[in-house]
Design a protein that fits this description.
By secondary structure, the chain is α/β, with parallel strands linked by helices. The chain has two domains: 263 residues, Rossmann fold, CATH 3.40.50.10540; 67 residues, no CATH class. It is built from 15 helices and twelve strands. The radius of gyration is 26 Å and the shape is elongated. The mean pLDDT is 93.
């Protein structure tokens, strides 16, 4: 891949300062909104009195956890108690000036609040509204990432391949995959709005997002029982374990084609015998190296992709980067996009609940200090010291 030219320090963000009202929680919706914020959108996060589940994970600094910081850096925060008198009306007014609204309440909740798409679009026909659910608009079932990992078949497949009892994945894959699809869908709807002049409602389920991102879904569709062929295998090697990004039969074919190995299987051997002897031949060949660098060079010459078994922190400096948040020593993972004529960066630090009650309402709605103070007195606006256990 050719590296894009370095952009100028003053290069603009790729997106206009679209107004994004982020009413979502946990990871899927907030991650999509974080992407839009880093790309240049003005994202206003609406936070209620209950803590977000992500506030329970990671080191806490300035009142925010590491996971919350990763999902919500760069956004402004307004604290709104939806049970307060006039709170729903305030959200309607914000939505009337927004380009995008993102929510992942259970299906039906926004309609019951009077904040469904039909109602909001009547006031703002250009609004793009994204509703993320676990299983689609007809199911109000709760769905966090582990639920989708299980229901999508990922855990059963992993257990079958590893020959052990199912265990959950060590990351919220269903959430982040859904967040990526969500950001793509929002950008597509905003592009279509440029031609039509109208926004639209986007429905996105976590289960469908995982299915669409599953590179082995074809096997289920076709009824194939062939083992998952693109899974890497771990081998003993000088200097520590080594992953080869191919099953043993493919590694064998590539090494044999290079003339590195001779077939140890006697003529007429059945397939299980051939597989066992060839796999052992690969391991014996690796065991013959005392210098890991020489082994890796041989694998490269054979066209075989390999990897060290690094820990989670080792990825940074190898194409993945962290960024320091403005006004803080806290770091979060940077978005991976490298534009040659645009700047992608976190615009601000991690807001405390209600930190931007005043400036956001002045910017978005033109409210003066007296009107904002009245909302606080009425219990509609809340701030960081008004929380309830999640």
């Amino acid at each position: 891949m050719t590296r894009p030219a370095e952009h100028e320090p003053t290069a603009p963000a790729p997106l206009p300062a679209w107004r994004v009202l982020d009413m979502s929680q946990a990871i899927s919706g907030p991650y999509a909104a974080r992407i839009l914020a880093d790309l240049g959108a003005d994202v206003l996060r609406v936070e209620g009195p209950r803590t977000d589940v992500t506030e329970h994970f990671g080191a806490v600094r300035d009142g925010r956890s590491g996971m919350y910081a990763q999902m919500n850096a760069g956004k402004r925060s307004i604290g709104v108690d939806l049970a307060g008198p006039g709170a729903v009306d305030l959200i309607r007014r914000l939505a009337a000036t927004a380009d995008v609204l993102i929510e992942n309440f259970r299906p039906g909740v926004m309609d019951r609040l009077g904040l469904g798409y039909a109602s909001l679009s009547a006031d703002n026909p250009r609004l793009v509204m994204l509703s993320v659910s676990g299983f689609g608009p007809d199911s109000a079932r709760r769905a966090l990432a582990p639920v989708i990992h299980a229901e999508s078949g990922l855990l059963a497949r992993q257990a079958e391949l590893d020959g052990r009892a199912p265990t959950d994945l060590p990351l919220a894959l269903a959430d982040t995959v859904t967040g990526l699809h969500a950001a793509i869908a929002v950008l597509a709807a905003l592009h279509q709005r440029e031609a039509s002049g109208r926004g639209q409602h986007i429905g996105l389920s976590m289960l469908a997002s995982v299915a669409a991102s599953d590179d082995h879904a074809h096997a289920a569709i076709d009824g194939s029982t062939e083992p998952y062929s693109s899974r890497g295998t771990i081998w003993a090697a000088p200097g520590g374990p080594l992953l080869i990004a191919a099953p043993p039969k493919h590694a064998w074919a590539m090494l044999a084609r290079r003339g590195v190995l001779r077939d140890p299987a006697p003529a007429g051997s059945d397939l299980p015998t051939k597989a066992r002897l060839r796999q052992q031949a690969i391991q014996d060949w690796m065991n013959g190296f005392t210098d890991r660098a020489r082994l890796l060079a041989e694998l490269e010459q054979a066209g075989i992709a390999w990897a060290d078994l690094s820990d989670s922190g080792d990825k940074f400096g190898h194409g993945a980067h962290t960024t320091t948040l403005p006004g803080s020593d806290r770091r979060v993972v940077a978005m991976p996009y490298q534009f040659s004529a645009a700047s992608v960066t976190v615009q601000r630090g991690v807001a405390r609940r209600g930190e931007h009650n005043a400036d956001a309402l002045a910017d978005w709605l033109g409210l003066d200090a007296a009107a904002i103070a009245a909302l606080a007195v009425d219990g509609v606006l809340i701030s960081a010291d008004v929380t309830a256990a999640g």
